Predict the 3D structure of the following.
Amino acid sequence: MENSQTQDLDLLYYVNIVFKRFWLVSFTVVLCVLISMAVSFMMKPVYKASVLMMIDRENAARIDTQTAVTSWASDEDYYRTQYKLLESHSLLSIVYDELDLGKYEEFRTQGLERNIDKLRKKINISPVVRSRLVNLEVSSVEPALAAKIANTLAENYVHRNINSRVLIAKDLVNALNNSDQSSAHERNLLNSMPQIVNNDLIKKYKEQETNLEVQKARFTSRYTDEHPELVSIQKQIDTIQYKIEDETAKIIKSVKIDLSGQFLGNNVRIVDKALVPLKPYQPNKKMNLAIGFAAGCLLGFLFALIADLLDRTVKNSEDLETKLAMPFLGITHMEKLRKKEAEYFTMLDTNPSLSAESIRNIRTMLDFALAGRQEKTILVASSIQGEGKSYLSSNLSVAIAQTGARTLLVDGDLRRSRLHKVFKTENSEGLSSMLASSDIKIMDNIAKTAIKTDVKNLYILPSGKQPPNPAELLNTPKLKAFIEAAENHFDKIIIDCPALLPVTDTLLWGKYAPNAVFAIKASSTNVKFAKTAIEHLKKADVNVLGAVITMHKNKGFKYGYYKDHYYYYKTEESKK
C-alpha cells in the first residue's frame, strides 16, 4: 500500500514539473518540430524503385545436382549467396558502365569518375518472408534513374545466372551426347553423377563386383588363369560389369531426355519490373514531424527536470522543510483580481474560496505553534520586498478577528508604508507619531489612536508620516512601551514588518516581540536569501514559528483535488 502511494506521489511530482514549466516544455517541443520541418524541407528528395524477383532454389538444386558439380548447402546459405551475388563488384561494375553512372554526381566522388561503393550503398535487398521472392530496391535523387538501375541490375543478374548454368553443364552435355564414344575423363564425369552413384541397383552390383574381385585375388595366388574357379569368377565379374554398364546407359538416357527440356531453363526470373516512382520515400515529412514532436517532449521534460533541480527557490512545503528546515504553516494563493487593493480582503469574500480556507489553516497552525504561550504579538517578516507579506498580515488579522479576538494590525514598516492604502485610511497619525512623541503616556491612548475597520474586532494602526530616522525611532524604549500597551488593550497584535535584508528594522521589533512568521514567495524567494534572513532573526533571539509560502500559483494537479473537494464539501453543507 505504501509503495503504491509512493509511486503515485513520484508520478505526481513529475507531472507537476511539466505543468510548472509548461512554457519551457512547449517552447522545446515547438523548436524541435520547427527544426524537423526545416530539415525535411532542406533535404533533397530521394526516390526508390523496386524490382520483384523470384529465386527458385529447387530448380537450381535439381539441375546442378544432375550435373554433379555443386554440393548444395542449406537453403539459407543458398539465398544469402544469391543476395551477395546481386551486390557483387563485378555485377555492379557492368551496371555502372552500361548506364554510365559516372556522369551523375551522386554516384561519383570528387576526383574519381567511377565509384562502385556509392552504387552499392544505393541498393537494398529485401527478401519477402516465407517465400522465394525478393525485392531489389534502388534509391536515387532521380526517379527515372532509380528504376533504370533496378531493372538493369536485375536483368544482368538473370543473364549471368543463365550463362553460369550453361558453362557448368557444358562438359556434362558433351559427355552425355558422346556417351558411346566418351573419353576416360568424360566417362569418369558421367560415373560421378549422383543418379548413378546413388542408384541402389548399381550399388548392389558394385558390391558384388568387389566381393568377386576379392575372391579372384585369393585364387590367383594359388592357381593359374585357366583354373575353372578363376574362369567362373571372371565370367561373373564380366556379367556384373555388363549389368552396371547397361543400368548406367539407361540412367544416362533418362538424364539426356530430362536435361534436353530443362537445361536452358533458369531458376531466377523477374516477376515485376521497376516502375518510375511518383513520390519520394525520403524525407518522410510525417515521420520527421512525429520524431521532432517526440524528441521535443522528451527534451522539454529533461530541461524542465534540470531546471527544477537547479532551481534554488522555495516552491512547496517539501522545499521549505528540506532546504530551510522550517515548519510549514500554510500557503496563500495567487489570484486574478480586478482591483489591486482587493487582494487584501480575501477573508471578506462571502463565497467559498480556496484562498480563504488557506488563511484559516494558517491561523489554526499558529494557534498550535503558540499553544501554552502567553505572547500576543506576532511579527510578519520576509527576506526581501514583494513576497506577499502585507497580504498575509492583512488577511491573517481578519481571520483572527473573525474568531472574536480583539485584533490590532500594525504597519511596522516606517519606510514604505502601505496598509493605509489597502484599508483606505488616513496616514497622518500612527506609529511614527506615537514613537516620536515626548509624552510616554500617549501609549495608553493606543486604543483611541488605532482605527477601527469595517471588520468586527479588527483595528489598524498606520505607520504615520515617514520619519527621517526610522531605525533610530524604533531603537528606543518607547517601542517596548508601545508593545506592552498594545498587548494590554488587544488580544492579538500582528505587525507587518519591513523586509529583513535591506534594513534591520525587523530585528529591532524582535527585541520586544519574540515570535515571527516568515513569508516566502513561491518559486521566487532564493534559498540563500531566506537562510540569511532567518539566521538574522535567530541571532536576535526571535522565535520563527514557521513559514508561509505566499503567492502560490496552482499548477499541475497538486491542489486541484483539494479545491474540488472543498467546493463539494461547502455545497453539501449549504444544502443541509
